[in-house]
Amino acid sequence: MNPAPRQDPADAPSAPGEGRSTDTDDRDDLNALEEAEPLLADASEPIPMESANVHFVPVPEPQHGSTLELFKDPYFWVLALWMLLVVGSAEMVVSNLGTIVLSLPSAGGSNASANVATQVRLLSFFNTLSRLLMGPLADVLAPVASYLDGVWAFSRKRHASRVLFVVGAALVLAATFAWLELGVRTQEAIWPLSVGTGIAYGTTFTVLPGVLSSIWGLPNLGRNFGIISYTAFVGTTVFSYIYAFVAARHVAPGENACAGVQCWRATFWVGTATSLLACGAALFLWRRWRHRV
User: Fold this and answer.
1) Which residue range forms the structural domain that includes residue 106?
2) Is 213 among the domain residues?
3) Does residue 98 sit within a domain?
4) Is 59 helix (H, G, I), strand (E, B) or coil?
């Protein structure tokens, strides 16, 4: 009779439920390992971060000063001079556009009143259009600085300084006045004066608040804008008196109104020179402020 073969204990069939118990123990060990890992990374370990596409360019903080401190700032007076020359000459055109048109003959014998109305509409249209377009354009090309992470900085890349819009307004006005002197001899040809004046005037009052708030602070914007607006009042008065004086000197004997380019030629030569002076003042401010606004 042959003896039964010996069976290795490892090959012996497991009792019912024994394999299930082993699987449960393995899962418990795995859970214990996972719980042993810290939920938060150690501060000493470098944390991988994705590079953010944000460019912070620190700038000096705006000057939140009193009215007296504002008056002591020489750059405020340079900006006030620019305002006086640009807005003063532009408002002189706005106030006297009708008499400027009527001083010239009509090329085709068209109605003079209709020609005046056309020029007024052109000036108003481009004044409004420049206000609607220059604001968003300045925000895209030259955003103002904001308070970010404890510092004043530009939150995104700038492509230009907002002061360049100030320079551009003076240049447009100078070119407009020079063109009036050299190329306008009829009522119908005077449209560049209306268009250029409207663009320069609208650009000025659109861009100026951003410049004031960036340099002297947003809380004082209303006060500072009100103060600098007085220079526009002075400029308008000065240029309007120049226009009236020149026109009165060229009224023909027995006539009630001046006729011909001599009625305003000297006035607009002065306007061309003062607009170029304003452009120089704006370039001076650009060199000083181009990294701030």
Assistant:
1) 74-142+160-289
2) yes
3) yes
4) coil
Chain segment 221-232, per-residue pLDDT in tens: 999 999 999 999
Return the half-sphere exposure (C-beta side, CA atoms, 13 A cut-off) of residue 278: 34
How many domains, in total, are found in the chain?
Answer: 1
Which pLDDT score is estimated for 246?
96
Within a domain: residue 67?
no
Write the single-letter amino acid at 34.
E
Weakest-pLDDT range from 92-96, 142-146, 182-186: 142-146
Residue 127's CATH number: 1.20.1250.20
Listed as own residue / partner, the contacts of 155-163 with beta carbons closer than 8 Å and 24 or more positions apart are: 155/54, 155/56, 156/54, 156/55, 157/55, 158/57, 161/286, 161/289, 161/290, 161/291, 161/293, 162/138, 162/207, 162/210, 162/211, 162/214, 162/293, 163/211, 163/282, 163/285, 163/286, 163/289, 163/290, 163/293
Instruction: Decide: 188 and 107 in contact? Cβ < 8 Å.
Output: yes
Q: Is 56 exposed, middle or buried (0-12, 13-18, 19+ CB in 10 A)?
A: middle
Phi, psi of 154 (to 5 degrees): -85, 130
Question: How far apart, in whole angstroms, are the C-alpha atoms of residue 238 and residue 84?
Answer: 9
- Token pair of 191, please? 């449209």
59 domain residue, yes or no: no
155 — pLDDT class (breaks 50, 70, 90): low
Tokens representing 179 are 């063109």
Task: Give me Rg for the CA atoms of the chain.
Answer: 37
pLDDT greater at residue 140 or residue 268: 268
Q: What percent of the chain has pLDDT over 70?
A: 74
The predicted pLDDT at position 140 comes to: 84
* Helix axis angle, 74-102 to 112-141, nearest 10°: 150
